[in-house]
Structure formats: C-alpha cells, structure tokens
Specification:
Layout lengths: L1 H14 L4 H14 L4 H10 L4 H17 L3 H15 L7 H18 L3 H15 L4 H4 L2 H17 L2
Helix pairs in contact: 1-2, 2-3, 2-4, 3-4, 4-5, 5-6, 6-7, 7-9
C-alpha cells in the first residue's frame, strides 16, 4: 500500500514540484513507518515559507515524526512550537487542532514517563472534547482518543 502511495505522490511531484501537498504526503508515509526521513519533507515545507496553516501542519508533523522515533525532547519542542503557532491561527474549529496537539502531548509525556505533564494535557484535551463538532467526537478516532484520555486519567488519578 505504501508503495502505491509513494508512486502517486511522486507523480504529483512531477506535476507541481514546488507544492507543499506532495511533501506533506511523503512526510506522512515516512512518519507512519517511524522513519526520520519524514523530517526532510517537513523541513522543506518550513523552508518554503508556507501559509500559517501549512506551517502548523509541518511543525506538528515534526513532533509526530520525532515521537514515532522515540526522540522525545525533540518531539516536545516541535509540539510546543505548533501549539504556540496555533494560538495565532484563525481556524474554523480551533478546538479540533488544540485537541489534537493536547492528545499528542499527553501521549508523548506518558511514553516519556512524565505523568504530571501527561495528566495536564489529558485534562486539557478532555475539557475540549465535548466542544468538538460531533463528526470529530463521534468517529472512531475521536472515541479512541477519549478512551485513551480516560484510561490515562484513571491510571494516575488513583
């Protein structure tokens, strides 16, 4: 499946070599593999001086890539940069983006064995959950995230 994705993305690259979109596609393929090759594409995006939304996606992607590679200090740095930028963005549903970053930070700190920070971001994510549009709350991913938040809070709140 990944090979097919890569082939489609490479074709897109030949049609529009300066596009941010094909770089986001390549980066996603590599981060799902846990490969730090994703960082190359996110850095290219940041060097292109993208729109604020694309910049946010690249910064969050850097965090995800480092997290997947278990490079937690670097992941934290990029997640926090993305969160800082997020506060400046105009978004139709800013709570969705914040919820995503909060759950990423929660997972990072849990994996990094820093329960105090994990709880902090789990509570922040939980406080936003009910304000998410229903299509985000009620899909499989939203429900899984809620279960993970509750599980973490139950684990540490005892």
């Amino acid at each position: 499946m990944r090979e097919k994705q890569l082939n489609v993305i490479k074709k897109f690259k030949t049609l529009d070599p300066d596009s941010v979109n094909w770089r986001l596609g390549m980066a996603r393929v590599y981060w799902h593999k846990g490969s730090l090759k994703a960082l190359r594409y996110f850095r290219e995006i940041l060097n292109l001086k993208p729109s604020p939304v694309r910049k946010f996606l690249a910064m969050a992607g850097m965090g995800i890539s480092y997290y997947m590679a278990k490079k937690f200090p670097q992941a934290e740095k990029w997640y926090l940069k993305a969160l800082k930028l997020l506060n400046k963005l105009e978004s139709k549903h800013p709570e969705v983006d914040k919820f995503g970053i909060f759950t990423c930070l929660m997972a990072l700190y849990e994996a990094w064995h820093r329960p105090k920070e994990a709880i902090k971001y789990a509570r922040k994510a939980l406080s936003l959950y009910h304000s998410l549009p229903s299509r985000y709350r009620n899909n499989k991913r939203g429900k899984r995230r809620l279960q993970r938040i509750k599980k973490l809070l139950n684990k540490y709140d005892k």
